[in-house]
Amino acid sequence: MRKRPDPMNDEATTAAERFDAALLQRMTGQSGDRDTLEMQCLMLAEMTGLSLALNAGKAIGEPVDVEFDSFKAGPRSELIAEFDVNSVICPVFIDGWCDDITLAANTVFVIAVMECMLGGGVPEGKKIKPRELSEIELDVSTILFAQFAESLKSAIALPVPKEATAGQATQEQPELEEGKENTPCVLLTFQVRLGSVEAPFMVVLPQRPLLKSKIAEQEDGKPLKPERPSWARQLTTQVSHSHVLLEARISLSALTLGEVARLQEGDVLPFDDEGGVRTLLSAGGKELFWCEFGKAGNRYTVRVQEPHRHEHELMRDIAPG
Predict the structure, then answer these.
(1) Coiled-coil stretches, from where to where (predicted)?
(2) Hey, which residues does 102 pair with through a beta bridge?
């Protein structure tokens, strides 16, 4: 006969409650033994990694390597707490399979992808530092996570999954729904490499759907068929349609510090240029074009004349950095 927990002994009560909860989870199929979980995770990670490397490399235009790093089982709250402080996080769900998946990636990888998509080539990993992402980069992160979800979906044979959907990426730690903190989950960690940039991608998903799944297998001797990377067009569109603040600077005639100190309301300062006035157009602190200053109707205008920098550097200079 099981002893009744001693209300005067919190440690004993807690241990009993944990034992009862773990036993109930196992009996109801919410959790599994470590060997079974590890086998499922290894097969899932292999197929997911193959799909992600193939389609991400095709879309970005540079080789992408994906390597499975580690597996861990535990309550959802403990596993999500392992996300790095420099992570960007996204909720995803795969209709017909699992509606409660959380993905995370280091911001370094997103910054590297942005540079590639803007024509800057593969950056050196040591030059990129994790930082807070801009709104543009968060949108790009969401698209990257959507592709990761598609790669997860492709690894599930049964039950046949339907559409994979990604929520909005954020750098805030996710708030867990009440009652789901202790849901038995697994944490899969991948190392993703783009040139010399290497960063972790992490997946937290419940054990229950994983245990009931049949993982897809690669046919011997046949490479994976690349999917049509529609998300690549989304990336390009997102980057090219992003709004940037433009500023036009006009040089005024030089004054001494004493003359500046004596300026008063109503004083008139001449432009430095005689005749046609040139302005320097910039965005995000990056100097872009020389322009001609003018007026159209009631609004002052600038007409683009020539690049301040080489054309191949233009898009890269506008990128958030």
Answers:
(1) none
(2) 91, 204
Residue type, 281: L
SS3 state at 203: strand
Q: In what order do the strands lie in the sheet with 98-106?
A: 64-75, 184-194, 197-206, 98-106, 87-94, 164-166
Q: How far apart are CA 166 and CA 149, in angstroms?
A: 7
Superfamily of domain 21-240: CheC-like (3.40.1550.10)
Q: For residue 108, what are the contacts with CB-CB under 8 A and spacing of at least 6?
A: 86, 125, 128, 129, 130, 197, 199
Scanning the chain, the segments in alpha helix (DSSP H) are 10-27, 34-60, 76-80, 107-117, 135-154, 207-211, 230-240, 257-261, 311-318
Can you tell me which residue has the tokens 């241990």? 15
pLDDT at residue 4 in the model: 43
Residues of the chain short of pLDDT 70, as ranges, are 1-30, 119-120, 219-245, 284-285, 309-321
Residue 169 in contact with residue 102, Cβ under 8 Å?
Answer: no
Encoded tokens for 247:
């500023």
Domain range annotation of the chain: 21-240, 246-258+271-318
Q: Is 121 left (phi over 0), alpha (psi -120 to 50) or beta?
A: left
